[in-house]
Design goal:
The chain has 273 residues and is of the alpha/beta class. It has two domains: 179 residues, Vaccinia Virus protein VP39 (Rossmann fold, 3-Layer(aba) Sandwich), CATH 3.40.50; 64 residues. Helices cover 28% and strands 32% of the residues. It has seven helices and eleven strands. The chain has a seven-stranded mixed beta sheet, with helices on both faces. It has a four-stranded antiparallel beta sheet with strand order 6-7-8-9. The longest helix has 16 residues. The protein is globular, with a radius of gyration of 19 Å. 36% of the residues are buried. The structure holds S-adenosylmethionine (SAM). S-adenosylmethionine binds next to strand 2. The site of S-adenosylmethionine (SAM) has 20 residues, from strand 2.
Length: 273
């Protein structure tokens, strides 16, 4: 079973994470892998794309640069501020709208043709019940024929072993030109399908001696593919595809690295651009 307490990772987790989010994603193979997949998907959409958990605009801003309008929903003001700054720097602020809201509660003025929830972000809603209500709410905000696309971890023993390792994620100069090492490991509890990602920065002096260490945590849970299928179906979705990788390989337990779900609210077909 998915962890049942607390129901949502702290809304402030990403407020505390925002300043390292870009180095975090720049050094994550999974983030590099999903970028083109989502950009291609957004390009096919008619009307604005709604990205839930838009974060710092890692996907939304390049999509806007390619001419797509994006409504970005996020609970973290600090992440939305980074998204706004990124859009401004790229000259596409007019293509983005920002909604500071929980993705279980956002309200659209016009039902969407495409809602995306990229990069394992459903995992931040921790309990199975809250994931169920998130999917039901997404369904309610789609137009008939509109699509909902999300990815989740596909947790295998090999992935758990990898996540439990302590890894040096990046080295960089942080503000004040300080030599910094970014480390990560995870506590993984397979029984409750929950993990705590623990990351820490070591700030070194000019002799390489540790001056200060800062820890941060992110709480996540994951769905088994059978649970994801059930929740989508219960919410009323038709499942168009489940991929095991961002190259759109069909999902297979033997080879999958991710679970990527393409679901649709039944009704009129949305014509691809
Ligand atoms: C892993 S980041 C993904 C950011 C971006 N979509 C990307 O792919 O880089 C998850 C984002 O979801 C947001 N988030 C987490 N729980 C949320 C919730 N219940 N409602 C809205 N946003 C949430 C976080 O603040 C964070 O910005």
């Amino acid at each position: 079973m998915v962890a049942d307490t607390p129901s949502l990772s702290s809304p402030n987790e990403y407020d505390d994470f925002a300043d390292i989010y870009q180095v975090w994603t720049d050094t994550a193979a999974s983030a590099q892998a999903n970028l083109e997949f989502y950009l291609d998907l957004y390009r096919e959409a008619v009307g604005p794309v709604v990205e839930l958990g838009v974060g710092d605009g890692r996907i939304a801003v390049p999509a806007a640069c390619r001419g797509q309008d994006v409504i970005g929903v996020d609970l973290s003001p600090a992440m939305l501020e980074r998204c706004r700054a990124r859009a401004m720097a790229a000259g596409v602020l007019d293509r983005l709208a920002f909604v500071c809201e929980d993705f279980r509660r956002f309200q659209l003025d016009v039902p969407a043709g495409l809602i995306a929830l990229p990069y394992h972000s459903l995992g931040h809603v921790l309990s199975l019940e809250d994931k169920r209500s998130a999917l039901a709410h997404v369904f309610s905000q789609l137009e008939p024929g509109g699509r909902f696309v999300f990815d989740d971890f596909y947790v295998t023993p090999a992935l758990v072993d990898q996540m439990r390792k302590v890894q040096l994620r990046a080295t960089y100069r942080s503000s004040g030109d300080i030599d910094t090492l970014l480390w990560v490991t995870s506590l993984v509890d397979e029984a409750s399908q929950a993990m705590t990602v623990v990351t820490w920065e070591d700030f070194l002096d000019t002799d390489g001696v540790l001056m200060r260490r800062r820890y941060r945590r992110l709480h996540l849970s994951w769905l088994d593919p059978s649970q994801a299928r059930s929740l989508l179906t219960e919410a009323g979705f038709v499942i168009d595809a489940c991929y095991g990788g961002f190259d759109r390989t069909p999902f297979s337990e033997a080879t999958a690295r991710e679970q990527i779900w393409i679901a649709r609210r039944p009704g009129a077909d949305v014509t691809a651009a």
